[in-house]
Design a protein that fits this description.
Layout: H1 7-16, H2 41-48, E1 70-72, E2 75-77, E3 80-88, H3 94-104, E4 108-119, E5 124-131, H4 134-145, E6 152-155, H5 161-173, E7 178-181, H6 199-206, E8 212-213, H7 217-223, H8 232-243, E9 249-253, E10 262-268, E11 273-279, H9 289-303, H10 307-325, H11 344-350, E12 364-367, H12 370-375, H13 380-390, E13 394-397, H14 404-421, E14 425-428, H15 431-437, E15 441-444, H16 451-458, E16 463-468, H17 471-479, E17 484-487, H18 503-513, E18 518-521, H19 529-533, E19 540-545, H20 547-550, H21 555-578
Parallel strand pairs: 3-4, 3-6, 6-7, 7-8, 8-9, 12-13, 12-19, 13-14, 14-15, 15-16, 16-17, 17-18, 18-19
Antiparallel strand pairs: 1-2, 4-5, 9-10, 10-11
Helix pairs in contact: 3-9, 4-5, 5-6, 7-8, 9-10, 13-14, 13-21, 14-15
The structure holds adenosine-5'-diphosphate (ADP) and (4-amino-2-methylpyrimidin-5-yl)methyl dihydrogen phosphate.
Length: 579
């Protein structure tokens, strides 16, 4: 349905016809169900990036057909949020938070800046607000709205009555735009961002135009003339009273609710209340949560979600970002920012250990086999450590019959070993496991996930290898963004059933046409590794072995001998090339 309607039209249909989302009276926010076997819920959560349902409880309100991009014939129009807000020099709140939240949710975000603030993790500095003139706000609005297909307008800091009026004028010209109003008045640090003078124009003109209003407790209280809001019951009352001022939906945010174990928000749509609860994350890094929540709601509406669904996804997103940001340190003050991409922490952990793929690392490529290690009574971790100490230059975990949870545990311990030796670790086939343990990459076969998709999921800095038996497959792998190809089986092998062998001729034919570095695989060991490397293909970088290392009593010794043979073969081919 959403694909045949423009996103803004669809969100308006949903907003106008409230019947499109189911009404569940005072329903607590559904919590994630964890798949019984498999990835721990937290990792599923991160991998699925809060977009998908984990478990089944959410089905009561979620529209599955909301599309992130609208395809008008051959051109793809992306969902688009325009944020009208203030700039935060510290990058934690305001325009900067809005841009990051929309980007993280896969939505385009344009910006109209209403004020420039000088703030950081301590707060807004003295004389730290410079308001943009009404004329120039109008100019920015004109630039964006006269040209771009905006679906939803989200407002943050609106520091003067004049600026609110200019915005209202534009909204009148574009009556189909959905409007999310975050009535920013005071920052987390307690600094005033919009004075009491704007309250009248908010109440009388902006709120009646809003599809959803998202005040925190302080803002709700201010808009209601100083009403005390200290309990969840007060939040219900406030939501109802604010709804009477005209917005179609009101979300009163309880981040600052005293003595609350949960982070409770109350949504009122004019008929039903929804009490949305999330675990309260213990963190000081909460600067920008309100802006992020409102932007995320706007982003989901722009994709075509109904209000309740948009709010639930946004709240989950904020909870996840708060959790992932709780240890990051950006400044010396008490209010740190969120990590919208759930990544900073991870990148800090691996900083200095991230390197670009080096084809030379393919020289001795060790591929594990859980059966063999079990037979020899050793753990994968010990096996991998011995292989590396013997001279393996890259490791691939190929655990075809492991349970997902066990596979992740094994992969995490192998990651530690590999990182400590500076050797890349790839995961066979399982992109989810690679993400869960932050492996260096993935190796896929022809019938696994297509390399192009793996690249999209893993991003540009991970290593991707593809098994190929023909020059055409090798070409496809290159086009799809792979880093290397594995060619084989060169010789018959017991480690892979029904595997057609390509022989040395097949290997050479692929090497000669491949634009990617090649590693040979299949039945290779001490006795034939030299012959394989001697075929005279400069892009044949090494051999991948399974049994020749892991089905031996002393892994370290076998790896050492193989490495010597390979170094000698490389040396000989260099002599041949220079002759
Ligand atoms: N410590 C926390 N843990 C989980 N969620 C939180 C926490 N603090 C705030 N939230 C949530 O973040 C969103 C923003 O709320 P709030 O902090 O009240 O807004 P603002 O940033 O505008 O003051 C709400 O959904 C709220 O429930
Ligand atoms: C420019 C700008 N806009 C909004 C906020 C509110 O964010 P928070 O409540 O997290 O301080 C802010 N501090 N600065």
């Amino acid at each position: 349905m959403a694909s045949s309607l423009s996103a803004s039209l669809y969100s308006h249909v949903c907003l106008a016809r409230n019947e499109s989302f189911s009404r569940v009276p005072v329903k607590a926010l559904s919590r994630c169900l964890v798949p019984r076997k498999g990835l721990p819920a937290k990792r599923c959560f991160r991998i699925l990036y809060n977009r998908k349902i984990i478990g089944a409880v959410d089905s009561m309100v979620t529209r599955e057909d909301a599309t992130p991009a609208i395809n008008d014939g051959s051109k793809i129009r992306v969902p688009h949020v325009l944020t009208v807000a203030g700039s935060d020099s510290g990058g934690g709140a305001g325009i900067q938070a809005d841009l990051k939240a929309c980007a993280a949710r896969g939505v385009y975000c344009s910006t109209v800046i209403t004020a420039v603030t000088a703030q950081n993790t301590v707060g807004v500095q003295v004389a730290g607000v410079s308001v943009v003139s009404e004329e120039f706000v109008a100019e920015q609005l004109k630039s964006v709205l006269s040209d771009m297909h905006v679906d939803v307008v989200k407002t943050g800091m609106l520091p003067s009555v004049g600026i609110v009026k200019v915005l209202l004028h534009s909204l009148n010209e574009f009556p189909n735009l959905a409007l999310v109003v975050d009535p920013v008045m005071v920052s987390t640090s307690g600094d005033v961002l919009a004075g009491p003078s704007i309250i009248d124009v908010f109440r009388e003109e902006l709120l009646p135009r809003a599809d959803i209003l998202t005040p925190n407790l302080h803002e709700a209280s201010t808009l209601l003339g100083g009403k005390q809001i200290k309990t969840v019951g007060d939040m219900y009352q406030a939501a109802k009273l604010l709804h009477d001022m005209g917005p179609r939906n009101v979300l009163v945010k309880g981040g600052d609710l005293p003595d609350s174990f949960d982070a409770v928000d109350v949504l009122f749509d004019g008929e039903e209340f929804y009490e949305l609860r999330a675990a309260r994350v213990k963190t000081c890094n909460t600067h920008g949560t309100g802006c992020t929540l409102a932007s995320c709601i706007a982003a989901e509406l722009a994709k075509g979600s109904p209000i309740l669904s948009a709010v639930k996804v946004a709240k989950r997103f904020v909870e996840a970002t708060l959790d992932y940001s709780k240890e990051i340190v950006v400044g010396n003050g008490p209010q740190g920012p969120l990590d919208h991409f759930l990544r900073i922490k991870k990148d800090i952990q691996v900083s200095g250990k991230h390197w670009a793929f080096d084809p030379k690392s393919l020289v001795l490529y060790a591929v594990t086999d859980s059966g063999m290690n079990r037979n020899w009574g050793r753990s994968i971790m010990v096996a991998v450590k011995d292989a590396i100490e013997g001279g393996a230059t890259i490791v691939q975990l190929r655990e075809k019959d492991a349970e997902t949870g066990d596979f992740i545990e094994a992969a995490k311990s192998c990651m530690e070993v590999c990182r400590s030796y500076g050797v890349p670790l790839l995961i066979n086939d399982r992109v989810d496991v690679a993400l869960a343990c932050d492996a260096d990459g993935v190796h896929v076969g022809q019938s696994d996930m297509p390399a192009r998709l793996v690249r999209t999921i893993l991003g540009p800095d991970k290593i991707i290898g593809v098994s190929c038996k023909t020059p055409e497959q090798a070409h496809r792998a290159w086009v799809d963004g792979a880093d290397y190809i594995g060619c084989g089986g060169v010789y018959p092998t017991n480690t892979k059933a029904n595997n057609r062998t390509i022989g040395l001729d097949g290997l050479k034919a692929i090497c000669l046409t491949s634009k990617l570095p090649v590693v040979a695989i299949g039945g290779i060991g001490l006795l034939n590794a030299g012959t394989v490397m001697g075929i005279g293909a400069p892009n044949l970088e090494g051999v991948a072995v399974v049994s020749a290392i892991f089905d031996r009593e002393c892994i370290l010794e076998e790896a050492r001998k193989l490495r010597l043979v390979l170094e000698e073969a490389k040396h000989q081919s260099l002599i041949r090339e220079s002759a």
